[in-house]
Amino acid sequence: MSNVIPRPTPAHPGCAWGPAFDRLALPGTLGAPAELRTWAVRCLASCRRPYATSSDLAESLKLVASELATNAVTHSASGEDGGFLVAAIHFPHDCAALWVFDLGPRPGAPSAPQAPPRLLDALDLFDTEHGRGLALIALHSRRYGWTAPPDHPAHSVWAELSAYPVAVAA
């Protein structure tokens, strides 16, 4: 069985999210994913939205936060000595949105992330430890994408997580 991976959203919806509920700057170290995970779930619990107590949303938010921070530390200049990343979290009426900014690509690396494969079983992603971060983000988000120069002034990856379960037609 294959899981179809949604494609990235070309337009960034950040303005529609309204002001950030909170922001966090972290050193680009191996501890950043755990710190971002803890902070994001703490923000969700205190956001005063009807979905603030959703355990499903909290679990998806933890996974997405961890993947976003791991990717920033592993694949960008944020993971080099003195590097850092910045996160912003938003809680519009129907979703949680997490936006992670990094310092851009390491020398010689691509300037933007590569879209995940169309099918999760492609490239043996079920059994691998690396290379499936954006696929996991895509599967837990209703929309996701990234920004990179020259179209945007900063490097970032963002994800919107639905606050309410999506009804599946029978």
Automatic annotation (TrEMBL):
Every Histidine kinase/HSP90-like ATPase domain range: 33-138
UniProt keywords, alphabetically: Kinase, Serine/threonine-protein kinase, Transferase
Protein's UniProt name: Anti-sigma regulatory factor (Ser/Thr protein kinase)
Ranges that cross the membrane: none
Domain of life of the organism encoding this protein: Bacteria
Key word Transferase present: yes
A GO term, aspect molecular function: protein serine/threonine kinase activity
Pfam families: HATPase_c_2
Native source organism of the sequence: Spinactinospora alkalitolerans
Keyword Transferase: yes
InterPro entries: Anti-sigma-factor_SerPK, HATPase_C_sf, HATPase_dom
